[in-house]
Automatic annotation (TrEMBL):
Keyword line: ATP-binding, Ligase, Nucleotide-binding
Protein's organism: Kibdelosporangium aridum
EC number: 6.3.2.2
GO molecular function, one term: glutamate-cysteine ligase activity
Role: ATP-dependent carboxylate-amine ligase which exhibits weak glutamate--cysteine ligase activity.
GO-annotated biological processes: modified amino acid biosynthetic process
Protein name according to UniProt: Putative glutamate--cysteine ligase 2
Length: 359
């Protein structure tokens, strides 16, 4: 079935104090964490930390790196009475917005976008898949767009923000799409078409640099990869790897197809993504084949049936089946957050449930 595609994952986290409130000391976790394969980085605010795995070929390798990086950050936090929380939105009400990380680019963004910068403080999961070239990336974007809603539903993990249940499984996605360059990518006729839209956004001042192309799938600026940015940070490393190997399978399928991509207008796709953000994996999700909402697990299972030969060839099939069975039994991250919050009425208990325990 061809050479196995490489995969890497970036994850963003909130750093909170022992009470669950956002801390301003995320950089100290990054500076003092034990060195692991991959990288640890600061993010837009002082309350966020990011990890990035190295280039991986197997789900076992990816899972090991994610566990090690998450644990290293969590252990560094524990030494300072801080915790690492994988949630797409901040859980507790805060008296003040989180402070911006002292970085010239981030400060320029804060000055340019004003109050919005604090409304889009969210944590996502980005999956990088190695591709031959930009033209191949455009082909993958066009073919995988219709599956974005189920990828969003799969890791939806942000129903609570500032102590309130929002009624959405992925409130992060609703917040994130306030960025003028965020949301579903259009259908691109060529690499030149892609570049013309990016250049138009730059000329308008709606983005300040190419790193601010925030489409749900984009060509990476600095690596020979395609970056899927649709998802909330996953509640567990296993759920992040599940997303990653499904995305890799989708990319492989798109690179090797001879059929034309589905004709799905961007306005319709945006509407479908709204539904996926509201319902998550235990609700309904528009099916790519007809656009009518059906149980999200039905869409997921139909996708996995398409990808089964690829997943088997990559050695991912057994892992995927095990993780989907787990999700079927427990629900996704958003479901587990909401159940805890509904049971106690205290977002602090949801923080306790989510916080990563060092291994």
């Amino acid at each position: 079935m061809g050479e196995q595609l490489t995969v890497g994952v970036e994850e963003e986290f909130f750093v909170v104090d022992r009470h669950g409130h956002l801390s301003r000391h995320a950089a100290k976790l990054i500076d003092t964490a034990e060195e692991q394969d991959g990288e640890l980085q600061t993010e837009l605010t002082r309350s966020q930390a990011e990890l990035a795995t190295g280039v991986c070929r197997t789900h076992d390798e990816l899972l090991t790196q994610l566990h090690d990086l998450r644990s290293a950050l969590a252990a560094a936090g524990a030494r300072r009475n801080l915790r690492l929380v994988p949630s797409g939105a901040a859980l507790l009400p805060e008296p003040d917005p989180p402070a911006i990380t002292p970085n010239p680019r981030y400060q320029r963004m804060a000055d340019h976008f004003g109050a919005m910068i604090h409304q889009v403080t969210t944590c996502g999961c980005h999956v990088h898949i190695g591709i031959p070239d930009a033209a191949a990336g455009i082909q993958v974007i066009n073919h995988t767009r219709p599956w974005l809603p189920i990828l969003l539903a799969l890791t939806a993990n942000s129903p609570i923000e500032h102590g309130v249940d929002t009624g959405y499984h992925s409130w992060r996605y609703r917040l994130w799409t306030q960025w003028p360059s965020a949301g579903s990518p259009p259908v691109f006729s060529s690499v030149d078409h892609y570049e013309s839209i990016v250049n138009g956004c730059l000329k308008s001042g709606a983005i300040l640099d190419r790193g601010m192309v925030y489409w749900d799938i984009r060509l990476s600026e600095h690596q020979p990869t395609l970056e899927f940015r649709i998802s909330d940070v996953a509640a567990t490393a296993e759920e992040a790897v599940l997303l990653a190997v499904i995305v890799r399978g989708l990319t492989h399928m798109a690179l090797n197809t001879t059929i034309q991509p589905m004709d799905l207008p961007n306005d319709v796709l945006r509407a479908q993504l709204w539904r996926a953000a509201r319902d998550g994996i235990t609700g309904d999700c528009p099916h790519p084949h007809h656009g009518v909402p059906v149980p999200a697990f039905t869409v997921l299972n139909d996708l996995l049936e398409l990808l089964k030969p690829i997943l088997r060839e990559n050695g991912d099939l057994e892992f995927v089946e095990k993780q989907v069975a787990q999700l079927t039994a427990t629900g996704g991250g958003a479901d587990r957050q909401s159940r805890t919050f509904e049971r106690t009425g205290r977002p602090e208990d949801t923080v306790d449930m989510l916080a990563i325990i060092p291994e």
